[in-house]
Design brief:
The protein is 22% helix and 27% strand. It has 184 residues and is of the alpha+beta class. It has one domain (5-179): Peptide Deformylase (Alpha-Beta Complex), CATH 3.90.45. The chain is globular, with a radius of gyration of 16 Å. The structure holds nickel (II) ion.
């Protein structure tokens, strides 16, 4: 099932998402999240973006042809915890399915160490770097109630204010179904 994607301005994107009960059957929801993400040509999707305030996100970098480093990067993260972020901050232009039409350069740390469960409730402790770390940091922020535009300098954010207001009203072009909090 393809869910509509929740737009910027919806309170669900600002909540700290709740842990999922250990052992819960996530099969259907995970399948739906991949379907929803692929339908929107996204490389990451967090549960709050489909209106569920739970600590789950999926990533799939395998659809990006020009990033060979992501060829095997299709994963599910349940109840993830970022334990450490290391290295030097680097900038990269990010976008978000919940903030369509806006792309901005954001600085994030190079590497991270995390712990998470997969769909079979196996516990993993793993390190990621580069674009993989970047995608994880972006999605992890979603389950913490954060969004990438929060990192922008105040002036830059002010310049985007009108565009963000339009997105909250659903006045934005997308190739996927959206749910906008202020749509009349
Ligand atoms: Ni996002």
């Amino acid at each position: 099932m393809i869910y509509p994607i929740i737009m910027y301005g919806d309170p669900v994107l600002r909540q700290r998402a709740k842990d999922i009960d250990h052992g819960a059957d996530m099969t259907q929801l995970i399948e739906d999240m991949f379907e929803t993400m692929h339908n929107a040509s996204g490389i990451g999707l967090a549960a709050p973006q489909i209106g569920k305030s739970i600590r789950l996100f999926v990533v799939d970098g395998t659809i990006i042809d020009d990033e060979p480093g992501l060829a095997d990067f299709k994963k599910i993260f349940i109840n993830p915890v970022i334990m450490d972020e290391l290295g030097t901050p680097w900038e990269y232009e990010e976008g978000c399915l919940s903030i369509p039409s806006i792309r901005e350069k954001i600085a994030r740390m190079e590497r991270l160490k995390m712990r998470y469960f997969d769909e079979g409730w196996n516990l993993w402790e793993e390190e990621f770097d580069g674009l993989k770390a970047r995608i994880i940091q972006h999605e992890y922020d979603h389950i913490e109630g954060k969004m990438f535009i929060d990192y922008l300098p105040p002036l830059r954010k002010r310049l985007l204010k009108g565009k963000l207001a339009d997105i909250s009203k659903g006045k934005v072009e997308t190739e996927y179904r959206i749910s906008a909090p202020l749509k009349k």
